[in-house]
Amino acid sequence: MPGPVPNREADLARPRERKGSDAQSVTRGVARPTKIPNADRNWHPIAKRLWDSLKESGQADFYQQSDWALAYSLCEDLSYYKKSGKRSGQMLQTIYSAFERLLVAEGDRRRVRIELHEPAPEKQSAAVVAIADYKKDLGLAE
């Protein structure tokens, strides 16, 4: 995933079109249900916070059991790093690089063309609004 972070699809003048050698076939599999393990109670607070945020983040919709296992292992490593008295910049960089593979940050997701958007606001159907207006006109509204 090297290189600059691409613009959001909506920010592009026209959507990307795949041409010629850029077009690649995709092998598809079946996503299986996952069970998210609980965080280790002994983890450093930052590792716990990161774990909890992963469970709540939109990219978790794409995670499979192996992704959760990798995330668990990385939080374990991060906790060890944060608790240890002797810290290595190389170890921290390695941990952060591994989190990129889980698409933890927005830039990581955009590099692989995954964008998370706010859910569309729920609108009442025209029929529900019309009935509510009719009840109000009849004096039956609460």
Automatic annotation (TrEMBL):
Query: Which residues lie in Basic and acidic residues bias regions?
Result: 8-21
Q: Which residue intervals make up region (Disordered)?
A: 1-41
Pfam families in UniProt: Terminase_7 (PF25673)
Q: State the protein's name.
A: Terminase small subunit
Say which species the protein is native to: Actinacidiphila glaucinigra
